[in-house]
Write a structure and sequence with these properties.
Largest sheet: 4 strands, antiparallel
Structural class: alpha+beta
Radius of gyration: 33 Å
């Protein structure tokens, strides 16, 4: 099993925020647990099962049986491993949830990003947190923690639909970065930074840079500059398309009105008038005014 804080975050991200009992956080994060410990918040929720803490683990969730008010026992049900029962207290079952915004802010500062500008709750993207700003382009920086590619797509599409501006996405690992993800991010001119190769921890559990992210930021800046140079051209195209669409809609509306008028019998009289009167009628329709039509035909208004 892969261990360390970055794989742990993705593994425990099945809810809105990564969450688990403290023993599971400690076991999965292994030696990197001090980097996470200060960002774990106690909730009011109790676990419904318990992780296997054997080494190696059996891979199943252990069933919980309550013995009395102060004691629980977690037993393996799969029979694959040689797992001894674990005796637990209610405090052992308390779910601890990641403070994603605080964690992401610390990560963003370590990477050199400024504080978020206008940070707000992202209802369309609940697994994205606005954690910083890239000063060179005034672009927002988001932390995203997803258990699957489908959830990654859903959250990015939700963000793009509500805030149509290029951004930089920080993700724990590159495990969900497929060709489809790269193609989508390229279309919306967004950068992707996997944190696992970039950040490590020191002996005090503080974040430290393990490798630079400047190559990613340079590509982001270059792509954004190219997109902005194309903006006036694209804007002209959009205006032309809008004009054609508006003309088409006007013609369609006029046609629909004529059909409606015909259906109401408003033109039926034209079948019973002579050619001269028909010409005068068409002149009035074209000019929109009796006096103008009379002048165009060289006759009196009364005629």
């Amino acid at each position: 099993m892969s261990r360390g804080i970055w794989s742990t975050l993705e593994r425990l991200a099945t809810g809105q925020r990564p969450a688990a009992v403290l023993a599971e956080w400690r076991a999965l994060a292994d030696g990197e647990f001090p980097m996470l410990e200060g960002f774990l918040r106690v909730t009011q929720r109790l676990a419904g099962d318990y992780p296997c803490l054997s080494d190696p683990d059996c891979g199943c969730r252990h069933e919980l049986d309550q013995c009395d008010d102060a004691r629980w026992v977690a037993r393996c049900q799969c029979g694959v491993g040689d797992c001894a029962p674990a005796w637990l207290t209610p405090s052992d079952l308390i779910i601890h949830e990641l403070d994603a915004a605080g964690f992401g802010g610390a990560v963003a500062r370590t990477l050199g990003f400024g504080p978020p500008e206008g940070a707000a709750v992202l209802y369309a993207a609940p697994k994205l947190w606005h954690v910083g700003t890239y000063a060179a382009t005034r672009s927002p920086v988001y932390l995203g923690i997803f258990p699957s590619e489908a959830e990654l797509f859903a959250n990015i599409e939700g963000l793009v639909s509500s805030r149509a501006e290029p951004f930089i996405l920080l993700a724990p690992t590159a495990g969900l970065r497929s060709a489809a993800v790269d193609s989508f991010l390229a279309r919306v001119h967004c950068g992707f930074v996997p944190l696992a190769p970039c950040l490590g921890g020191d002996e005090l559990g503080k974040f430290r840079m393990a490798s630079p992210i400047e190559p990613v930021l340079k590509r982001f800046v270059a792509d954004l500059a190219q997109a902005r140079n194309m903006a006036p051209v694209l804007e002209g195209i959009y205006r032309e398309v809008a004009a054609v669409r508006e003309d088409k809609q006007s013609v369609s509306a006029a046609k629909a009105r004529v059909v409606q008028m015909h259906g109401e019998g408003m033109f039926a009289f034209a079948l019973h008038i002579d050619r001269e009167a028909r010409q005068q009628f068409m002149a009035i329709m074209a000019a929109g005014d009796v006096a103008k039509a009379a002048r165009d035909l060289g006759i009196n208004d009364s005629t």
